[in-house]
Amino acid sequence: MARRIALAMLSLVGALLLGAVVPLGMITTARERASFRQDTVLTARAFAAIAEDGVTEPGRSPAIAAFLARASKSGEAGWVYNAAGRLIAHSTEKVSPGGLHLPAGPTAPVRATMRAVQHGGVSITQPPGRLQVAVVVDAASGLAPVGVVVLARPTAELNERLRVLWAVLAAIAAGGLVAGAIAAVWVGRWAGRPLSALDAAAQRLGSGALDTRSAARQGPPEVRRLASTFNTMAGRLEALVHGNRAMMADVSHQLRTPLAALRLRLDLLAADADEATAAELAGAQGEIARLSRLVDGLLAVARAESAVTVPVPVPVADVVRDRVAAWIPVAEERAVGLSASAPGQLYASLGEGHLEQILDNLIANALDAVPAGGHVRVGARPGGLGAQVVVADDGPGMSRAQQEAAFRRFASNTSGGTGLGLAIVHRLVTSNGGSAELSDTQGGGLTVTLDLPAPPAGPAVLVADGPAGWAAIPYQF
Q: CATH 3.30.565.10: does it fit domain 309-462?
């Protein structure tokens, strides 16, 4: 953002300087050239007035000679022609009249020039390096012109003056750009640094640092108000999370202790009861066990919903193989095949211990749903976000309506189930930035597919050589 602000300000300053300096230079240049031309014309007219007596009375030419001498000293040149086209006087500098083409011989060019200048009295040309003005010498009697004077003035001094002018304007523009760049960078940093700090604070807060606060004393007033609002929000969020955690600990303690005491009393009563009463007490104990599982599940869902995830790189393949190995005894006891497919190595960004909890819930649900002789397969492979974990079984599966409601609380398809296992899985996956979906297993059954995000830095997936899909099965029954 700071860079965009600096570039915008620099572009605006550059446009303003360009719109001011260039027109000023052009106007000043035009005025200097017009002034130079007007001064040259006035000098030529004065030269024509001086030359009048010398053209009509050649004996009275000292004034012409004096004028031409002064003109030569200042770098100018002059020529005087009579009506017949004869050169009467000229400056000592050997300079051709250039564009006027007024030689001392034939009279036609002189007369043509006089006809050309009679309408306005002046003819102006600009050969390379000089300005040349021809003025008709009028007779005192007001009759036909008696001659022509030509004055040539070099433009080197004018051009040098204009070059200096443009150099000064360019220096002013460059100085303005430098000053504008410095101001733009300062304003960009002044406005951008607090926003960058606020963004970093928001990232730290999102990653689990609940005590994060942003400096609220820098930048524009709007940014300071935003930082103050962020700090207020972070404080309330910290208090809310800590309050929820304290409440969950209190609920866990207050509910589990009475349930354990009630179960113990029922066990004591069942020991001395007759057969009918013992059967009723056993049913009550089953309901208490179900209530205990329900309490544990609700607490797990509450923890998953209120937990602030601090993601760490998790070796997905290693965790898959480890959890499958841990559940093998349970699968053997139920005569269910359990296999793992995790070739190579995959990494995902999850909260510490979350993937283990997710897999435990999915494997437990699958083993409960699959009858004896069935199979449960757990695999890890590269996915769109980073890593993909798939748990597939060949059990009874779910209908489309059941799949749509499976991630909701208390949505259970098995008797005695709490309906919280998939809800916990969904909360943990989504809180880490991933996604979970259900689909039918080919041939019958249910498949749970989890897309897990890759770590923010480093390679997301490193796949070793080997067959893809379900080919690598280190555990099979």
A: yes
